[in-house]
Amino acid sequence: xxxxxxxxxxxxxxxxxxxxxxxxxxxxxxxxxxxxxxxxxxxxxxxxxxxxxxxxxxxxxxxxxxxxxxxxxxxxxxxxxxxxxxxxxxxxxxxxxxxxxxxxxxxxxxxxxxxxxxxxxxxxxxxxxxxxxxxxxxxxxxxxxxxxxxxxx
Length: 153
Known about the structure:
The chain has 153 residues and is of the alpha+beta class. Helix content is 28%, strand content 25%. The chain has helices at residues 16-19, 40-50, 56-72, 127-133, 146-149, and strands at 4-7, 21-24, 78-83, 88-94, 99-100, 109-121, 139-141. Helix 2 crosses helix 3 (56-72). The longest helix is centred in the middle third of the chain and has 17 residues, at 56-72. The radius of gyration is 15 Å and the shape is globular.
């Protein structure tokens, strides 16, 4: 059974669905992090160096997000992407390993996604499911409402 992940995008000019990927920001980490995520302390050190004004709790949370995105998420896992402006939910499957896109202007930390069902109205879901996929994290595990969401993937 695949894992379920939620992803948020605070840059609406980048369209995950049209572009066929999901991505993380943290553009100051301007390199492939495949090796870095193997050592949480080294990852936190690099994040802290890139974002020196952030507190240790934020840095630790960001390190966890990178590890989930690069290591824990696997091809075939389901990704759920709420589109805030359109008030819709998009469902896809991760279609590849982590990639670093150095030529991209932003959102260089990426995973290819095959979008399966897009533009599903938010009112198709219970408020509890919407709260779970409305997490404040950028990339997060969905655990509690998979049974409600899976009919759309």
